Amino acid sequence: MVVEESMTKPIATSETEVIEADVAIVGAGLAGSLARAVLARAGYRVVLIDKRSIPPDEFRVEKLAGRQIDSLRRLGFIDDVKAIAAPYDRVLNIRNGRLVDIGVGRSYGVSYANLVNMARGLTPDQSGFLLDQVTNVSCSEDRQQLTLVSGKRVVSRLVILATGMANALGHGLGMRRQMLAARHSVSFGFTIARPDNAPFDFDALTCYGKQAADGVDYLSLFPMSGGMRANLFMFRDPTDPIMRELRRDTRQTLLRLMPGLETYLGDFQVVGQVQNWVMDLTVTEGHLQPGVVLIGDAFQTNCPAAGTGVGRLLVDVERLCMDYVPRWLETDGMGTDKIAQFYSDHDKLAADQHSLHLARYREALTSNTDVRWTMQRKLHFLRRMVTHQVDRIHPGWVMRVRSALR
Ligand SMILES: Cc1cc2nc3c(=O)[nH]c(=O)nc-3n(C[C@H](O)[C@H](O)[C@H](O)COP(=O)(O)OP(=O)(O)OC[C@H]3O[C@@H](n4cnc5c(N)ncnc54)[C@H](O)[C@@H]3O)c2cc1C
Which residue's alpha carbon is at the smallest distance from atom 9 of ligand 1? Predict the structure, then answer.
């Protein structure tokens, strides 16, 4: 990648507190921090702005696996993730107290705050990080301007909005969040431990809900630095009294909703805080504007049960920062002709659509009571159990059949 000399100059702060950069990124969550790391590594002048110096200890993504790992490897950050995360390779999948199958493959458990801190630290020179709140964005075909609470201004050729679920800046630009599904899912995050911190008998465990009426998709247990972490994902009215029961008496409510779970867990207790999120599924409209591009949750929110949020934001970062931004900065202007290339990128569209599709699929598979989905639910778990049994008797056979059918 060829970087023009002008782009490698340090960020300049003039007396009037105007900071100039090639790219200004608003939001130092996972999306914004990784975007900065990729662009700064390539030699561009990047300003990253966030209103919080330390990422809050909020419940967000806590597991990384599969394509997310491949993407982190391609971006060159996998070793940084490995350094802060707890690895695990085997997941026992159970339902109604019976083994469904065993998932095999490297995964990692890590708190979101630690993940974001790691991502913020990927850029050794922190002079381009501004602890500030952006109050206004004004964009045009060639020069973008940010106004900050401190009174500073940032002028750049491109603005990347990575502001997560916060909507104010996009709103100011005339962008709107289209509600696809209000209060689509409910998630709980907490830590469990055995008496005397004795180890559990598994690396990781997923327990699926017993019946559609409960609205429980699954409980996922996996190692994290603070102990055995639990993520519970549900499709149920957030005002249902069961939500309060889950917050107040998490252990008993879990055991009631998931018969057979205790056999695998033994004696355990919930330690620390029980965190709880209600998620809307939304996508931003009116986003195609000169000089500004949205990534991660700022563009589209995700269903936590589907586990697609990080996959989506990694595709955004990879396609935008490794391909489009370097090409856009080679020539003058930042019109919608350039911006549209990113929004119509094949991989981005596929990741966004996959995320919505999986969100709706998980909801229907969990809680839809019509005949079709009732059958589908039964077949889904039956197919997995049979496949697992066949694979135990004839190791590798299922993989060979699957490859032959592709
Ligand atoms: C409960 C829960 C569980 C989840 N589980 C999974 C999972 O298992 N797998 C998965 O893939 N995904 C999961 N997700 C989704 C994933 O966590 C998100 O997709 C991801 O964290 C989004 O990152 P982001 O950088 O886009 O936004 P954020 O991390 O929200 O970052 C936005 C940043 O912008 C800053 N900001 C906002 N406005 C301004 C402003 N005006 N000025 C300055 N700074 C500003 C904020 O301070 C914040 O730091 C889950 C989400 C939730 C809620």
Answer: 307
Residue 50 Cβ inside 6 Å of ligand 1? The answer reads yes
Taking CA atoms only, the protein residue closest to ligand 1 atom 27 is: 164
Contact 347, 319 (CB under 8 A): yes
CA dist 274 to 186, 229, 253, Å? 13, 11, 13
The domain made up of 5-60+112-180+282-361 is a member of CATH 3.50.50.60? yes
Cα of 163 from ligand 1 centre, angstroms: 8
Intervals of CATH 3.30.9 along the chain: 85-111+181-280
Residue with CA at minimum distance from ligand 1 atom 6: 61
pLDDT tens column, 95-134: 999 999 999 999 999 999 999 999 999 998 888 999 999 9
- Ligand 1 center to 7 CA (angstroms): 29
Tokens in use for 141? Answer: 């075909």
Domain with CATH 3.50.50.60 in the chain: 5-60+112-180+282-361
The answer to whether residues 191 and 206 touch, using CB atoms and an 8 Å cutoff, is no
CA of 48 relative to ligand 1 center, distance in Å: 15
Question: First and final CA of the chain: distance in angstroms?
Answer: 37
- State the closest ligand 1 atom to the C-alpha of 279, by its place in the atom list counted from 1: 53
Strand partners, 129: 48
Q: Give the tens place of pLDDT for each residue, 31-49.
A: 999 999 999 999 999 999 9
Cβ 47 under 6 angstroms from ligand 1: no
Architecture of domain 85-111+181-280: 2-Layer Sandwich (3.30)
Spatial CB neighbours of 149, under 8 Å, sequence gap ≥ 6 = 51, 132, 133, 134, 135
User: pTM for the complete prediction?
Assistant: 0.94
